[in-house]
Every structure is written in structure tokens, then in C-alpha cells.
Design brief:
Chain lengths: 305, 177
């Protein structure tokens, strides 16, 4: 069985399971579906960002990661298709889609079923268009430049729409940027792990380690900034986002993220350890596992079942 | 007999210096050094320069100075001048993180640079036999030098001089002690 068939089969099965969860109205199962979907969509979506960055900035790392980035970006239409169950089950997941919800200020205007669905369609249409233009042979710096500018807006709004509005009272201005850093970190972690399966010279591996280090630092900086600002301001409708996510066993995950998605990778990627192919691959796999766990942590504790 | 400090060969090309360094190492010499006006790529490999005393000192400087910064913030806010700010805990660890990081960075940098200067013998060292050489100031201008010390076990005045001449230097001088 080829990889292509496996992806198509897995996609179809996931689609049917998601549809079943949406139509049965199970918030937990559809929430789990959304968490896995957002975590995995980071791979094509983060790959698109990295592809645009490489077209603009160049760099030797494109030689090892380029084919993987291009391949991953081709999965965007599949990701779009897999979002259909979420859009069908809006009412199951999102409190603002239920009858009787009244948002403060203009939130009610932004959070309407048809507008939310239309925005998701526009996001995916713009990403697929950018990817299609970018994947033609040759270099396309103008597409990459304009695409990057558009991506900054669409990707951060997508993060706000899909994840932040699960709790419509919650506000965080850095949420969109944080979401983008998660996309890049998730994509880079998985693709570096795959790239390391084939033999690679030490300087090329060190470059990949540096890229991972940059992604880890960016994510750590933004995640800590959001926490610090919310902790300092101490407003009930913001703090509750973290309180809900540190109740019971959920409390293990923020500490797990600090240790395993920041401190341990930071130390390993900064030290001699990054010269070892096995350790670097281990760090990449660990980062992708933590990325998926983080997606679950952002979705599941906030669900109003 | 007054033994000289060593020999100094001058090259007008960095590639030739790298080649000379490589062959000097292959000839079994250990106490030799290259002097260049700018960092030459590949020279560290040719010298087989593995020594790295600075990195751990950077790390130690960052940890010690950063730890002191953390302790200072805790002492000011909890012991010396406790202020109730909107009911938040006095030991506001999330807020302590940023200054700790900044000061740890400064600590690592200052300690690293100071350690580099100290390990180079500064500020105690006033002079060096090489600095008395007439043309050695060109090492910070446009020429590339290779020095071999007389204390090297393989060093033998006539043979070492002939060896260096064979490397094609533009000048070759004995360095007095």
C-alpha cells in the first residue's frame, strides 16, 4: 500500500468518524477530532509558511527539507475537507453557535455561523491558492512575499476562530501569533524527524537543529508572554482559560510543555547533543508529540460538554 | 648559549598559511601558533584547535549571575520592601522571569569576555617576544604568520629553519627571547 493510499484511506475514515461525532452531537468526540485535526493541519500549514520563508530567504536547509515541505503542503485540500465535520457541528463545539448566546460588544457580529464558515472557506482558499502558485516549478519570490503577508492575517485569524472562540469570553491579543508559532514548530518537528531517516551530513543536521531551536524559542517566548500578561492582569474571564487548563490531570500538561517542549529541547539543541543524529531525531519526535498534546490541551479542557 | 624563543615565518596568503600549518602539524610539531589579521576559515581545523574553555564559563556566568538576579528580586519583594499589589503573591515568580533572563544574558556575556581576556594572560602580560619583531605588527594588517617555539620537542634550530623555508614564506626570522 502506498503512502498516498494510506493518507486517502485514513482521511476518509477520519472524515466519517468526524461526521458521526458532529451528527451525534458529542462535544467530547468532536472536540477530540478538532484537537487532532488542528494538531495535524499544522504540518501542511506550517510547511506552507516555511516554504514561503525559504523562497524569500533561501538557505541550504531547503535542500533537505524542500521536497518534504512541498509534499506536506499538498495535503492542504485534504485538511480543508476534514474541517467540514467541524463546520457541520458548530453548535456542538462552540457556545456562541447555540441559541440564546449573546456576545459582548461586536462579538455577536463576528461569531455567526455563516460568517464563521465563510471565513474558514476563505482561509483555506487563500492557502490552497498560495500553495498552488508556489508549487509550480521555479522560484516565486513575489508570490511568497504577498503570500506571507496574507498568511499572517489568515493563519492568526484561523487560530482565533477555531481555538480561541471555543470559550467566546476569552481574549488574548497574542493568540494568533502563538498559533502560528505552533504551526511552524509542529511542521518542522515532524518533517525534521522524517528528513533524518535518510543519511545527512553533519553541517546539514546542525542547520536543522538550529531551525528547530529557533522554532522552540519563538514558541516559548510567545507562550510565556501570553501567560505573563494574563497572570499580571488577573481578570476573571482571561485567567479562567489557564485555570480550566490546570485542573486535575490537565495540570501536568503545562509543566510537561515547559519541560519537554522548551527546557529539554533547548538544552539538547544548544549543546554537543545536537551533533548526534539519534538525539536530534529524538528531540524532533518529542517536539511533535508535545505539539499534539498541546493541541489537545488547548481544545479539550475548555469544552462545555 | 642564549636559546632563541623560536622562529617566525611570514606568508602573504591565507591559503598558504593553512597549508603551512597543516604540514607543520604533520611534521610532529605541537608548540606552534598562527597569527592572522582576521578569522581565517579552515585555520582552526588545520591547527586542530579543540580547546573550549570559554563555553562552560559562559554557562556558569549565566547561571550564577541569573541566580543572583532571581534571589535579589525575591529579597526585595518579599523581605526588604513587601508591597501588596492587587492581592498578588509577593513572590511573583512569572514576573521575575524576564529580568532574570536579561541579567543572566549580561552575566554570561561579561563573564565570557572577561574569562577570554584572563586566559589570554591579560591584563598581567606586558609584552611577548613576538611583539619585539619588526614586522609582526603586520599580523593585524595584511600578513599571515606562523611561529614555532624553541621549547617544542621536535624543534632543532637548523632543521626547523630549513623546514619552514620549504613552506615558501616571504620572510623567516629568528625570534630572540
Amino acid at each position: 500500500m502506498t503512502l498516498r493510499m494510506a493518507i486517502a484511506g485514513g482521511g476518509l475514515a477520519a472524515f466519517l468518524l468526524g461526521m458521526a461525532a458532529a451528527l451525534a452531537g458529542s462535544a467530547f468526540w468532536l472536540g477530540l477530532y478538532l484537537a487532532l485535526l488542528v494538531g495535524l493541519t499544522a504540518v501542511p500549514l506550517g510547511a506552507l509558511a516555511l516554504l514561503m520563508i525559504h523562497q524569500l530567504a533561501g538557505g541550504e536547509w531547503g535542500r533537505n527539507l524542500g521536497p518534504l515541505l512541498r509534499g506536506a503542503t499538498r495535503l492542504l485540500p485534504l485538511a480543508a475537507l476534514l474541517f467540514v465535520p467541524v463546520l457541520v457541528g458548530l453548535e456542538v463545539l462552540y457556545p456562541w453557535a447555540r441559541p440564546g448566546w449573546e456576545g459582548p460588544g461586536g462579538k455577536g457580529v463576528w461569531l455567526q455561523d455563516w460568517f464563521f464558515i465563510a471565513r474558514s472557506v476563505v482561509y483555506f482558499a487563500s492557502w490552497i491558492l498560495t500553495a498552488w502558485l508556489l508549487l509550480r516549478p521555479g522560484r516565486h519570490p513575489v508570490v511568497a512575499g504577498l503570500g506571507m503577508a496574507a498568511y499572517t492575517i489568515t493563519a492568526s485569524l484561523a487560530g482565533v476562530d477555531w481555538l480561541m472562540t471555543l470559550e467566546p469570553e476569552f481574549n488574548s491579543s497574542v493568540f494568533g501569533l502563538l498559533f502560528m508559532s505552533q504551526l511552524v514548530l509542529g511542521a518542522l518537528a515532524l518533517l525534521v524527524a522524517v528528513a533524518l531517516r535518510s543519511p545527512m551530513a553533519l553541517p546539514a543536521r546542525k542547520t536543522l537543529a538550529s531551525l528547530l531551536l529557533a522554532a522552540v524559542l519563538l514558541w516559548g517566548y510567545l507562550a510565556f508572554m501570553q501567560y505573563l500578561v494574563i497572570w499580571s492582569v488577573d481578570l476573571p474571564h482571561e485567567v479562567s482559560w489557564y485555570l480550566q487548563r490546570s485542573e486535575g490531570v490537565w495540570a501536568l500538561i503545562p509543566w510537561g510543555l515547559v519541560l519537554l517542549q522548551f527546557l529539554l529541547p533547548l538544552i539538547l539543541l544548544l549543546s554537543w547533543a545536537r551533533s548526534s543524529r539519534r538525539i536530534l531525531a529524538g528531540v524532533a519526535v518529542l517536539l511533535f508529540a508535545m505539539h499534539m498534546l498541546e493541541a489537545g490541551w488547548m481544545v479539550l479542557p475548555g469544552l462545555r460538554l | 648559549m642564549n636559546r632563541p624563543w623560536g622562529l617566525l615565518a611570514e606568508f602573504d596568503d591565507s591559503d598558504r598559511l593553512i597549508e603551512a600549518v597543516r604540514r607543520t602539524r604533520e611534521a610532529g610539531y605541537t608548540e606552534f601558533e598562527a597569527h592572522t589579521p582576521f578569522p581565517v576559515e579552515g585555520l582552526a581545523d588545520a591547527l586542530d584547535f579543540q580547546e573550549n574553555k570559554i563555553d562552560p564559563l559562559h554557562l556558569a556566568g549565566g547561571i550564577v549571575v541569573g541566580g543572583a538576579a532571581l534571589l535579589l528580586q525575591w529579597w526585595i519583594n518579599v523581605v526588604d520592601y513587601p508591597l501588596n499589589i492587587g492581592g498578588r503573591p509577593l513572590a511573583a515568580w512569572p514576573a521575575f522571569v524576564l529580568p532574570t533572563f536579561e541579567i543572566a544574558t549580561v552575566g554570561a556575556t561579561v563573564v565570557g569576555v572577561a574569562a577570554m581576556l584572563y586566559l589570554n594572560g591579560l591584563p598581567g602580560r606586558k609584552t611577548h617576544p613576538l611583539l619585539k619583531m619588526e614586522r609582526f605588527h603586520l599580523a593585524s594588517d595584511s600578513r599571515f604568520f606562523l611561529s614555532i617555539q624553541a621549547s617544542d620537542p621536535v624543534y632543532e634550530p637548523r632543521r626547523t629553519r630549513a623546514f619552514l623555508e620549504g613552506l615558501g614564506p616571504v620572510a623567516l626570522d629568528e625570534v630572540p627571547r
